[in-house]
UniProtKB/TrEMBL annotation:
Residues 1-29 form the signal peptide. This is Multiple sugar transport system substrate-binding protein. PANTHER family: D-XYLOSE-BINDING PERIPLASMIC PROTEIN (PTHR30036:SF1). GO terms for cellular component: outer membrane-bounded periplasmic space. It comes from the Bacteria. It is found in: Cell envelope. The keyword Protease does not apply. The keyword Transport applies. Residues 53-340 form the Periplasmic binding protein domain. GO terms for molecular function: carbohydrate binding. Keywords: Signal, Sugar transport, Transport. It holds the Pfam family Peripla_BP_4.
Length: 394
């Protein structure tokens, strides 16, 4: 059976549920002329009015998820859906309970950004049994067939962009990735950090980065002096800033004479991790800015605290994933599902969750360096100039 047919069957199930809901509404509306007409008008399968959507987000400790949650909620409410938005404090049992509760409370569609992509099986089984379509948001939910759609960014390209920023920051390439005319011969020491091993995205980021860095490591231009080049060695459970700081401190102690030996750059997959790394580096005497010898540190998410650090010449780069666009895509997806049609996918090959290939819509990402904060971050209205200067968003 093709993915399309599986999706079609589940969407048809949902359309039937929505249609029955609308009929029930219409029956309840009874006397009031206006309300009867409204209810009758909403009797078409797929009307959003009053339909519950559960949105499960991982944590509020990273600002991107707060922006994601609010934007999806706002978009769905505008379209007439009732929204139950929950954050789980990066705690797996909290997230599973929240999703159980959403199902019990009558959610008809679920949008989930998982903490651990493999920990939601019983919730997804329950959703499947109740014909509740599930949209995997940003992070792919694994090992269950009841994942209907995936909205995300091109996660492999995020890793490629991080590595390209690092190579550029080290003077090895120009911004487009071509070998720089005056490139240093090396060897240049670098260290590698990866994201949380239970997040499906982390492997894509790391693979994209490593495929890009590989030729430079193989020809000896770059040396990972700690020898920690495997994903498992570089991984950072729950994307923890503290864990990253500790690992960087340990590497500086074991491999860089506590900070007295040259370290040119650090690949970091997320701004929170980048800030932990930078704290460790500065604590060991590097920097305080890149101009003073702080190693080049990459990032992801364009978090306001990191945008300020980039503006101040401390963090070298971040990858901007415009959560406004992702939220918009999630809302479009829910609307399509709600009306019984198939959401628009632009990738039906890459995201195998272990049970099936999940159709996906992937958005493009953008590298942010000091010189394009003005045009791409402030210019797009993501943050104001005041927020960038203060390092705090309102
Ligand atoms: C997201 C990243 C984010 C990371 C930590 C990943 O799943 O794709 O944007 O930096 O989680 O929250």
């Amino acid at each position: 059976m093709t993915i399309r047919r599986i999706f079609g069957r589940r969407a048809a199930g949902l359309a039937a549920v929505l249609s029955a809901g609308a009929l029930a509404l219409s029956a309840c509306a009874g006397g009031g002329a206006g309300s009867t007409t409204d209810a009758a008008a909403s009797g078409a399968a797929g009307s959003a009015e009053g339909i519950k959507v559960g949105i499960a987000m991982p944590t509020q400790t990273s600002e991107r998820w707060i922006a994601d949650g609010n934007a999806v909620k706002e978009g769905l409410e505008k379209a007439g859906y009732l929204v139950d938005l929950q954050y789980a404090n990066d705690d797996i049992p909290t997230q599973t309970q929240q999703i159980d509760q959403m199902i019990t409370n009558g959610a008809k569609i679920l949008v989930i950004a998982s903490i651990d992509g493999t920990a939601l099986s019983s919730q997804l089984d329950a959703a499947g049994a109740a014909n509740i379509p599930v949209v995997s948001y940003d992070r792919l939910i694994r090992d269950n067939e009841n994942v209907d759609f995936y909205v995300s960014f091109d996660n492999y390209k995020v890793g490629v962009a991080q590595a390209k920023a690092l190579l550029f920051g080290l003077g090895l390439t120009d911004k487009d990735g071509n070998k720089a005319a005056d490139a240093p011969k090396g060897p240049l020491n670098i260290e590698l950090f990866a994201g949380s091993p239970d997040d499906n995205n982390a492997g894509f980021f790391f693979n994209g980065a490593m495929d890009t860095l590989k030729p430079f490591i193989e020809d000896g231009t770059l040396v990972v002096k700690s020898g920690q080049t495997a994903f498992d060695q570089a991984a950072t459970l729950r994307w923890s800033q503290e864990a990253a700081q500790k690992r960087m401190e340990d590497i500086l102690t074991s491999t860089y004479g506590g900070g007295s030996e040259p370290l040119a750059g650090v690949l970091s997959p997320f701004d929170g991790i980048s800030r932990g790394i930078i704290t460790a580096l500065q604590g060991a005497g590097y920097g305080p800015t890149i101009a003073d010898g702080l190693p080049v540190v990459t990032g992801q998410d364009a978090e306001i605290a990191s945008i300020k650090l980039i503006n101040d010449g401390v963090q070298q780069s971040t990858i901007f994933k415009d959560t406004r666009l992702l939220a918009e895509q999630a809302v479009k997806t829910v609307k399509a599902i709600g009306s019984g049609s198939e959401p628009e996918a632009n990738d039906t090959e890459t995201y195998d969750n272990g049970m099936k290939v999940v159709p996906a819509f992937l958005l493009e990402v953008q590298t942010i360096l000091k010189d394009n904060i003005e045009s791409d971050i402030i210019g797009s209205g993501y943050y104001t100039a005041d927020e960038v200067a203060a390092g705090v968003s309102k």
